[in-house]
Design brief:
It is a single chain. With 417 residues, the chain is an alpha/beta fold. It has two domains: 280 residues, Spore Coat Polysaccharide Biosynthesis Protein SpsA, Chain A, CATH 3.90.550.10; 75 residues. The protein contains 18 helices and ten strands. The strands form two sheets. It has an eight-stranded mixed β-sheet with strand order 3-2-1-4-7-6-8-5. The chain is globular.
């Protein structure tokens, strides 16, 4: 029985797409969803220019459209797919083997980037299954994202040097090339990127053990760990967040600290969440409101009680911050603590089990429970980021500009676990 048999038996997946077999040295497969996006050719150009590694590389591009898409979108996708297929057949790229699939007429309920990413990553698993390589590396990339020249080198080294690590997220910086993108778009995207780094750093400050970036173009996972996590969810957006946080509860996720991925900062309506929609919102409203840092201070106080829960549950419950108690309810918290104590034999496993209950999904629900009119209503990202920076550093940054905040939080995020 192959390492992936249970996955394809249990989870709904498409049949094998590509008839050809991968060469025996294939160790990295890049998966790129593509929806009416000709930028994909620039993305492939940067993969072609990236320095080669000891492993052979494949790139799977899943061009996709739904049953509700316009004739214009379908024709544009076909044009892109035909051009990609022509390049694949002519061996246009020498750094990797290109594989192209155009998935059309996808049911409206399942169509979207999550479905396309799943189709490609499932196919990558099938190809590693043929080679009996459970540790084969599947990389997730987007069609509008360029990579650095050391992209493959940094990734291969990370997996080779950390054999027990299931996956890595990669540090990134949006492509702020003023010769390509409008300065207003760049300024808007900097605010969004500040938020991404603020959110991760704030989770880390609160003591959450799995504070990771969850960006669809910035991670890689071993095939065996991909299937153990149940594969990529078919979501129209946020599939990367759901998959990576589910995986983080099962296995170790590391980080490649060097910036090796540069997503596009452009406005887009291709997905409901992420850079494109956020940039559009910021351009329209001229600001970006996010969760208050005070809420992460509340979470920190709650998480620091976990050891007390293990030692003296009834006494410790009285110390729970009122914001947490009001949201989760005392009975629910007591029930979770009792269940975690019953099913663990020491504090280390108890702590891990507690964080599996109060995970990133529950944290986001908690953060979203405070409406705009409450004392914890959302605030401007610059204000929230400055509060975080002032807490984590010894300098007062109150008069810093957006660019100064951006540079500080970028440096801090790249250097903080």
């Amino acid at each position: 029985m192959s390492f992936a048999s249970f996955y394809f038996d249990r989870f709904n997946s498409k049949p094998k797409i590509f008839k050809n077999n991968p060469c025996s040295n294939t160790g990295i497969i890049v998966v790129i969803p593509c929806y009416r996006d000709e930028f994909v050719f620039k993305t492939l150009d940067t993969l072609e220019k990236a320095k080669s590694v000891s492993l052979d590389i494949e790139v799977i591009v899943i061009v996709n459209s739904s049953e509700n898409d316009s004739d214009e979108t379908i024709q544009m996708n076909k044009k892109i797919s035909d051009k990609l297929s022509s390049r694949a057949e002519s061996l246009y790229y020498s750094n990797f083997n290109l594989l192209v699939h155009n998935e059309v007429n996808i049911p409206r309920k399942t169509a979207g980037v999550g479905n396309a990413r799943k189709i490609g990553m499932d196919e990558a698993v099938r190809r590693f299954e043929l080679l009996n390589k459970p540790d084969g590396i599947i990389l997730s990339l987007d069609a509008d994202t360029i990579v650095e020249n050391d992209y493959f080198i940094k990734i291969e080294n990370a997996f080779v040097e950390n054999v027990k690590t299931a996956a890595f997220y990669f540090q990134f910086q949006h492509d702020f090339d003023t010769s390509v993108y409008d300065e207003n778009v760049i300024s808007a995207c900097k605010l969004y990127e500040i938020y991404l780094r603020y959110f991760r750093l704030a989770l880390n400050y609160a003591g959450y053990p799995n504070s990771i970036h969850t960006i669809g173009s910035c991670f890689g996972v071993k095939a065996v760990n991909y299937i153990k996590a149940g594969g990529m969810p078919r979501r129209q957006g946020g599939e990367d967040f759901y998959f990576l946080h589910k995986l983080s509860s099962q296995a170790k996720i590391g980080v490649v600290r060097d910036i090796i991925v540069r997503p596009s900062p452009r406005e887009s309506d291709r997905v409901p969440f992420g850079t494109g929609p956020a940039v559009g919102q910021i351009l329209n409203s001229k600001n970006y409101k996010v969760y208050q840092f005070r809420l992460f201070i509340v979470l920190k106080a709650f998480f620091e009680l976990f050891e007390d829960f293990y030692e003296d549950c009834n006494g410790a419950v009285k110390k729970i911050p009122s914001e947490v108690l009001n949201y989760f309810g005392e009975d629910r918290i007591l029930s979770i603590i009792a269940e975690c104590i019953k099913n663990t034999s020491n504090y280390k496993t108890f702590n891990k089990r507690m964080f599996s209950k109060f995970d990133a999904f529950e944290i986001v629900k908690f953060l979203n429970s405070f409406n705009e009119d409450s004392e914890y209503g959302k605030v401007d990202i610059k204000f929230a980021a400055l509060e975080l920076l002032n807490k984590l550093t010894s300098t007062n940054h109150q008069n810093y500009t957006t660019n100064q905040i951006y540079q500080l939080i970028l440096q801090l995020d790249c250097n903080t676990r």
